[in-house]
């Protein structure tokens, strides 16, 4: 697909002031939805002990509130693109934000564990529709030459949520009550719906295909089994044979789906997208980098709280530094990629991202707080730059008719990548403890986790080196030489 045809895939920049203002608001609107989902997904973990006491349960049992949400997201993400094409992206987006807000209220009003789990399942269903469909609206509204700038804005909420969630959750649980971790979604949801109705036009396909029910069933079982298996790795919440059986079930359904997808005209997850080099490389290499999204907050929490003995709130205030790094990235991502090109930025930055993850392994209880914050800030900058580049390049050469399926595919891959990142970190901690012959976590175990996750992130550079020198040049007007 040529640069000219790729640019033409999206509408030309709007000329009248109202349309121009609407186009500029799209990344902010989708970012609000993404922030609400990412914040909700992380803030609950901090509040589990307080919620367990209030609901007459235990933190271990209440962990099902997190698992049920993740499983619901995994099951319904693949259908989001089809729903947007069939019923209209704007309509589905508004409905998803509304359902997410209402289910958040239901979570806050829950009187026991079954009620909370039911509300979390509905909330996960809404979240599975909300973010991919919002991204579809952005991809079809923002001209491709402005996509990098839009994605640099959109990547910030994804990184802010996991960082802000722990200190915010700790503050609310300590000084307010656990109900507020869900009630804070109400004003965000109301604002999001108002902005969508004001600035977003309806987008839908003229003739959407029928839903691939068999593909939906196979993909649902595959993703639910894999996500729950990855989340359970290293946490001793199920017997090893059951865990291996769960992962085997997910892999088996995945193979069956791949066989099925080659035999239907409109599969719910379009595997043919992997024939597009920029999409395939961004998906595979990007997921190695996304291990850090799930693993780094988990490892930092273990290091600062268990290893250093800090309170959840104090630890959260330190890790907030990476959010500041993500904010700084917003102002320089576009010039950096425009000057150096996607291939060079992603290849070199993957190494830098991995290095700063491994630098966290050098932290000790005597490390000055200012140095911890400085390293986390710079690491957050590089991590945010990497995700901005990957998320933008993912859609560089996607034909307009496949944007919805590409968004669903990418969201599914991201969900698996983040879950697998947590699993890899947890397994590394357990292996390190086993090798020491210990049953309690020590600082050296967390050090091993940072090193493994950092090396995996650095390994993605081999994937990004396969990009063409001019890959994604039409997204930002970059002028690269052929010998780069």
UniProtKB/TrEMBL annotation:
Topology relative to the membrane: Multi-pass membrane protein
Principal location class: membrane
Pfam families recorded: MFS_1 (PF07690)
UniProt keyword Transmembrane present: yes
Subcellular location as annotated: Cell membrane
Keywords attached to this entry: Cell membrane, Membrane, Transmembrane, Transmembrane helix, Transport
Keyword Membrane: yes
PANTHER family the record matches: BLR6921 PROTEIN (PTHR42718:SF46), MAJOR FACILITATOR SUPERFAMILY MULTIDRUG TRANSPORTER MFSC (PTHR42718)
Protein name as it appears in the record: DHA2 family efflux MFS transporter permease subunit
Source species: Achromobacter seleniivolatilans
Organism lineage: Bacteria, Pseudomonadati, Pseudomonadota, Betaproteobacteria, Burkholderiales
């Amino acid at each position: 697909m040529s640069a000219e045809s790729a640019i033409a895939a999206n509408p030309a920049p709007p000329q009248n002031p109202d349309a121009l203002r609407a186009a500029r608001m799209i990344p902010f609107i989708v970012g609000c939805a993404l922030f609400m989902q990412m914040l909700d997904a992380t803030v609950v973990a901090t509040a589990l002990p307080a919620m367990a006491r209030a609901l007459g349960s235990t933190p271990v049992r209440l962990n099902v509130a997190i698992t049920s949400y993740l499983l619901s997201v995994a099951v319904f993400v693949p259908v989001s693109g089809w729903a947007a094409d069939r019923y209209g992206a704007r309509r589905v987006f508004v409905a998803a934000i509304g359902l997410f807000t209402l289910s958040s209220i239901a979570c806050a009003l829950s009187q026991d564990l079954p009620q909370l789990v039911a509300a979390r399942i509905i909330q996960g269903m809404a979240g599975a529709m909300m973010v991919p469909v919002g991204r579809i609206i952005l991809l079809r509204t923002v001209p491709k030459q402005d996509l990098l700038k839009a994605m640099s804005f959109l990547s910030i909420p994804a990184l802010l949520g996991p960082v802000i969630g722990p200190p915010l959750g700790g503050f609310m649980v300590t000084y307010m009550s656990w109900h507020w971790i869900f009630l804070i979604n109400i004003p965000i949801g109301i604002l999001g719906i108002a902005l969508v109705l004001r600035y977003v036009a309806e987008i839908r396909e003229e003739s959407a295909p029928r839903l691939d029910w068999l593909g939906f069933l196979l993909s649902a079982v595959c993703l639910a089994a894999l996500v729950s298996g990855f989340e359970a790795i290293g946490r001793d919440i199920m017997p090893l044979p059951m865990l291996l059986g769960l992962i085997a079930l997910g892999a088996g359904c995945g193979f069956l789906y791949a066989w099925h997808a080659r035999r239907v005209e409109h599969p719910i997850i379009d595997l043919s997208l992997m024939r597009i080099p920029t999409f395939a490389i961004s998906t595979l290499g990007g997921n190695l980098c996304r291990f850090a999204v799930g693993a780094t907050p988990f490892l930092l929490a273990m290091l600062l709280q268990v290893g250093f003995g800090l309170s959840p709130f104090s630890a959260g205030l330190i890790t907030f530094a990476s959010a500041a790094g993500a904010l700084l990235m917003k102002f320089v991502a576009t010039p950096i990629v425009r000057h150096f090109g996607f291939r060079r930025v992603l290849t070199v930055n993957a190494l830098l991202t991995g290095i700063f993850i491994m630098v966290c392994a050098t932290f000790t209880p005597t490390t000055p707080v200012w140095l911890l914050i400085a390293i986390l800030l710079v690491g957050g900058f590089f991590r945010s730059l990497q995700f901005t580049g990957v998320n933008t390049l993912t859609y560089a050469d996607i034909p307009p008719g496949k944007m919805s399926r590409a968004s669903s595919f990418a969201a599914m891959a991201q969900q698996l990548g983040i879950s697998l990142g947590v699993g890899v970190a947890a397994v590394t901690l357990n292996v390190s403890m086993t090798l020491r012959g210990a049953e309690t976590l020590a600082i050296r175990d967390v050090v091993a986790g940072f090193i493994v996750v950092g090396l995996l992130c650095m390994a993605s550079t081999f994937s990004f080196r396969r990009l063409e020198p001019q890959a994604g040049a039409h997204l930002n007007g970059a002028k690269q030489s052929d010998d780069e």
